[in-house]
Amino acid sequence: MSPDLIKSLVxxxxxxxxxxxxxxxxxxxxxxxxxxxxxxxxxxxxxxxxRIQLKDxxxxxxxxxxxxxxxxxxxxxxxxxxxxxxxxPRERVSALGGQVRSESMSDQxxxxxxLSEKLREITIFIGWLQPTIEAMERGQGFPYxxxxxxxxxxGWVKAIQRFEERWRLSEEKRLALEAxxxxxxxxxxxxxxxxxxxxxxxxxxxxxxxxxxxxxTTCQEKLSHLYEMARERDRLEDQLKAMTxxxxxxxxxxxxxxxxxxxxxxxxxxxxxxxx
Length: 276
Fold this sequence. Notes:
alpha+beta; four-stranded antiparallel beta sheet
């Protein structure tokens, strides 16, 4: 399928994004023949897998992405464009004689030169990959990317660099989560100790409350006893007042009797003649 045909089948946004994936070398064809293409596309957040088949004259596309773009997604657009770009030149029929002619010698030399350049880039990539793996195992930064021309090998380098960047971000998030977890454990320990102290204080307060209840019961009993004593005192006081009243009356009677006796004694003395 030519780029123009692909562009005519999909919405403009899908075609534009497919071109962007192609320009950023995020497309990798794993396996391809005249009937099917197996590939991967490094999206914004993860790697998606595609399988494109030509069956009974119909193009069947499948992609692991969640996109609902029709008739196929942006990743399949990128794969079809990449397949059109890297598919080997085929024998063409001459417009004049209708005979089959192969590609020219200059085209063959260009193909060999391109293959040599790609092998050189792959060798450089392998040389860069070994210290990169060692740096990854030690948790260190990756070495500088090799000086390669834009292409599939440079796309591999960029994909590994993006992977390293995402790994570092995830590692930073993991460390932040571990620090937050440790802080929460410290906070939980503090709250647990505070709860234990509070429970102990509640127990002590309950013990003091029980002692106060017992003291209150004792005080109530003593108060009841004092109330009974006060009632008895009032009763005795009333009796004393009554006795005091009786004594006062008797004193008056005695005084009256004594006065009468004095009068009688005086009268008797006046009546008794004096002895010679």
